[in-house]
């Protein structure tokens, strides 16, 4: 029976290139992409020994986990969310809204200028632990709890907040969900269902029972280390993360990190070993399908970012399949790695975490090493005969084609091929006359911080052009505007903010759901500026595409 993707390919525009134009994310112990990259190149283990979400002593579960910062902060007013709704809104929804905004800005888009556009929203999500706790909480249930925790709202709330009218839905294929969401978004753009798309996901841990169930299935590591490809691999470490990318046709992109050459998905079907047992043969099939469809040789792939969970069965099955496709006729070893060794397994977000690692590596020209790899897994022959080489130390990275694997524990496999956008040679720009650089923000501090971060990029013409494009139109949600004067060899900051009449930021609107005998605690917290300029500011300073 022909593959469903093949059935529909006659209706697809394969000639038009689709690119990753913007990206944003939060990761364990990493507030933004800047911090995440710094932690990767420093070889930091992002798994925490101090789990603050719940008491691990009540259950026989691993005592280490990857935790995000600031689950308790959210600017509800920016997204027109009532304080009562914000108090019980799933933290995943908060992160997805924030990251979607930042991914758009990183793509050089002022969100206010694309309201009403045919933009799609494709969200990856699994069962919400916050919603589970809310349902069994002693707090009286209300409509805000339903609207704040039902899975479909993770996507629909983004469409509502930004007034996007394209397809909007949530996909759940477990650990491969964000990669499936990306493949669906690519297909939607190719077939004309939408003009651009947000692909996002978030995963937060509030309930120890979920960790207990995964551990009872022998999926998680006892010592809290994801020993990917290693002989001692005994499972993965659960981790929180949130990420979003904005994709669109290359012809309309303000910047491009990578071209999405192709992506395909399949399922294992029936297996005598059971539904959670991976299928080497089906993984091999979906990988081969991608290269058959797009016409690129697997030998052109320079690096494989593997699913690489560190499970006893998963790693050998995946690498055996990959070796059959990529290593036949290869003159040099296939380089492989998995970001899960550094940050743990964020389950539905993991595909986007892999993309974030690859994009950051491409920008810096450095491929960070895997952690916890000492002895090659004896069940993976290609590690022993030299066909495959695990990246264990930071090394130069100048790949053209990068492949990514993603597998769900129910048998849904995805393979994605990226062609990295060549980095432009940065030419210093000395404007003949002073140039005014303007920006806006929710607070005076945000404006000042952005202008401060713009200083090192004052001679980067692409950065200045992209900044002008974002801020040339008014954003009704930004109360402050500022400017600075760029001269030929310096940038004289002359900040002058004026406040616009907008509704005030609602105080004490966020909640932190913490497990304690099925009681939900609502805690007051300070609000924050929605655009955390540190992460997007650094990427905004990269010269990635023409205008």
Overall description:
The chain has 547 residues and is α/β, with parallel strands linked by helices. It has two domains: 4-267 and 282-420, Thiolase/Chalcone synthase (Peroxisomal Thiolase, Chain A, domain 1), CATH 3.40.47; 424-504, Alpha-Beta Plaits (2-Layer Sandwich), CATH 3.30.70. It is 30% helix and 17% strand. The chain contains 17 helices and 16 strands. The strands form three sheets. An eleven-stranded mixed sheet has the order 3-2-4-5-1-6-13-12-7-8-10, with helices on both faces. A three-stranded antiparallel sheet has the order 14-15-16. A hairpin with a 4-residue loop joins β15 (480-486) and β16 (491-493). The longest helix has 16 residues, at 91-106. The radius of gyration is 23 Å and the shape is globular. It is an enzyme of class 2 (transferase).
Main sheet characteristics: 11 strands, mixed
Strand order of the largest sheet: 3-2-4-5-1-6-13-12-7-8-10
What structural category do the secondary elements indicate? Answer: alpha/beta
Instruction: Report the portion of residues in β strands.
Output: 15-25%
Got a strand count?
16
CATH topology label of the largest domain:
Peroxisomal Thiolase, Chain A, domain 1
The percentage helix is 25-40%
Say which CATH homologous superfamily of the largest domain is assigned.
Thiolase/Chalcone synthase
- Mean of the pLDDT scores? 86
CATH class of the largest domain: Alpha Beta
- The geometry reads as globular
Radius of gyration, whole Å = 23 Å
- Which spans have pLDDT < 50 for at least 5 consecutive residues? 497-547
Q: Can you count the helices?
A: 17
């Amino acid at each position: 029976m022909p593959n469903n993707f093949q059935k529909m390919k006659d209706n697809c525009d394969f000639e038009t290139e689709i690119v990753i134009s913007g990206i944003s994310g939060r990761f364990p112990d990493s507030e933004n992409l800047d911090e995440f990259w710094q932690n990767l190149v420093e070889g930091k283990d992002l798994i925490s020994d101090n789990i603050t979400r719940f008491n691990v002593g009540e259950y026989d579960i691993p005592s280490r986990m990857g935790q995000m910062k600031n689950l308790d902060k959210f600017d509800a007013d920016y997204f027109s969310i009532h304080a009562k709704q914000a108090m019980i809104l799933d933290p995943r929804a908060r992160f997805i809204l924030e990251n979607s905004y930042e991914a758009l800005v990183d793509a050089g888009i002022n969100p206010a200028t694309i309201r009403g556009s045919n933009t799609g929203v494709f969200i990856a999500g699994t069962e919400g632990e916050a919603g589970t706790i809310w349902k069994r909480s002693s707090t009286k249930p209300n409509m805000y709890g339903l609207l704040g925790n039902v899975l479909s709202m993770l996507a629909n709330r983004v469409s509502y907040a930004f007034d996007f009218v394209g397809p909007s839905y949530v996909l759940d294929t477990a650990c491969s969900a964000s990669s499936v969401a990306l493949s669906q978004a690519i297909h939607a753009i190719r077939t004309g269902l939408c003009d651009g798309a947000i692909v996002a996901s978030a995963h937060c841990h509030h309930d120890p029972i979920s960790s207990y169930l995964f551990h009872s299935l022998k999926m998680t590591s006892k010592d809290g280390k994801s020993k990917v490809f290693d002989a001692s691999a005994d499972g993965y470490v659960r981790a929180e993360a949130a990420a979003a990318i904005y994709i669109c046709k290359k012809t309309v992109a303000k910047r491009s990190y990578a071209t999405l050459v192709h992506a395909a998905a399949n399922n294992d079907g029936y297996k005598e070993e059971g539904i959670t047992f991976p299928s080497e043969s089906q993984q091999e099939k979906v990988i081969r399908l991608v290269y058959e469809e797009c016409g690129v040789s697997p030998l052109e792939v320079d690096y494989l970012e593997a699913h690489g969970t560190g499970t006893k069965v998963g790693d050998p099955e995946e690498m055996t399949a990959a070796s059959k496709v990529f290593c036949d006729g290869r003159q040099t070893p296939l380089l492989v790695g998995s970001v899960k060794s550094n940050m743990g397994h964020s389950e539905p977000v993991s595909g986007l975490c892999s993309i974030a690692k690859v994009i950051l590596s491409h920008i810096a020209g450095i491929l960070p090493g895997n952690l916890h790899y000492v002895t090659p897994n004896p069940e993976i022959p290609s590690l022993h005969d030299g066909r495959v080489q695990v990246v264990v130390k930071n090394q130069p990275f100048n790949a053209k084609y990068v492949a990514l694997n993603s597998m769900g524990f129910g048998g849904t496999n995805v393979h994605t091929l990226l062609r990295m956008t060549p980095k432009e040679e940065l030419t210093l720009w000395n404007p003949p006359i002073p140039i005014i650089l303007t920006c806006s923000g929710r607070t005076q501090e945000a404006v000042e911080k952005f202008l401060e971060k713009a200083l090192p990029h004052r001679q980067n013409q692409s950065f200045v052009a992209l900044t002008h494009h974002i801020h040339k139109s008014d954003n009704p949600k930004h109360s402050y505007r500022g400017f600075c004067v760029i001269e030929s060899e310096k940038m004289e900051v002359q900040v002058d903010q004026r406040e616009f009449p907008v509704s005030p930021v609602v105080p004490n609107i966020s909640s932190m759901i913490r497990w304690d005998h099925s009681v939900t605690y609502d805690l007051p917290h300070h609000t924050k500026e929605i655009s955390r300029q540190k992460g997007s500011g650094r990427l905004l300073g990269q010269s990635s595409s023409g205008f």
